[in-house]
Amino acid sequence: METTFTLTDAQTAFFHREGYLAVESLVPPDELEWMTAIYDRLFAERAGRESGDQFDLAGTDDDTVQASLPQILNPAKYAPELKEGRFRVNALRLARHLLGEDANYQGEHAIFKPARYGAATPWHQDEAYWNPNLDYNAISIWIPLQPATLENGCMQFIPRSHTMEVMPHHTIGNDPRVHGLEIDTLNSSSAAACPLSAGGCTVHPSRTLHHTGANRSEMPRRAYILGFGTPPKPRNPHLPPRIFAWNDAKQTPREQRRRDFETQNPVFNS
């Protein structure tokens, strides 16, 4: 599938200097309604709940409590038609422009902030969730399926924080049952907010500090995130080892569901 998506030299320079970028249009207009319908269906069905792919990012993931920040990992696993969208071709073109021609797709997820009570996503670095024994050259492409505003939870970044190491994190509320992470300490006075039109996107490397506010609006906030990168490499053995104790301490219901599902369905996960 062909794409005409391009970035300017100024956009490319801004991304590499500041550690984030806002792009006005990534999703073709005729795909927005199609994507939104699939997105809403997956969250209504809680697709992937049994296998641990659907869970509350900001809460204890208790089935008796309404989720304030539900997430679905790999939504295209449950709606394969999403693999055919032109938005995906445009995103790959964007990733290769920024990272090089050996950059490829590395995963996706969807995060839903319900109207009026959708929780904030605390300040964090994506790499804090990942394997500390590897070095990454990776980006996340964050796509709102409706206008993203300060009121409903647009992306915000700390400029140039991509040059930092991974900072100490902890689970939200210091509760090991919660999957989501937040940085231990941060001065966010330099934060840059990125309101966007529906179908635009923001792009950031794996170490850029970012967050989204709570949804105080009367409409749901839908975000679809694609990950791209070059192949991760083992860290230099002469460097001090990294230990992400915040991940080792987690005891989440989501992980237990995943383990139970894989035990009961070995073929499904092969």
Overall structural domain count? 1
Q: By helix and strand content, what is the structural category?
A: alpha+beta
The CATH top-level class label: Mainly Beta
CATH architecture tag: Sandwich
**Could you estimate the helical fraction of the residues in percent?**
10-25%
**Large-scale geometry:** globular
Could you walk me through the main structural features you see in this protein, from its secondary elements to its overall organization?
With 270 residues, the chain is α+β, with helices and mostly antiparallel strands. Helix content is 21%, strand content 24%. It has 5 helices and 15 strands. It has helices at 9-18, 29-45, 86-99, 245-248, 253-264; strands spanning 21-23, 54-56, 70-73, 104-113, 121-124, 134-135, 138-144, 155-157, 169-171, 181-183, 192-194, 201-205, 210-212, 221-229, 233-234. The strands form 4 sheets. Strands 1-12-7-14-4-3-2 form a 7-stranded antiparallel beta sheet. The radius of gyration is 18 Å and the shape is globular. The chain starts with 8 loop residues before the first helix and ends in a 6-residue tail after the last helix. The model has no long low-confidence stretch (mean pLDDT 96).
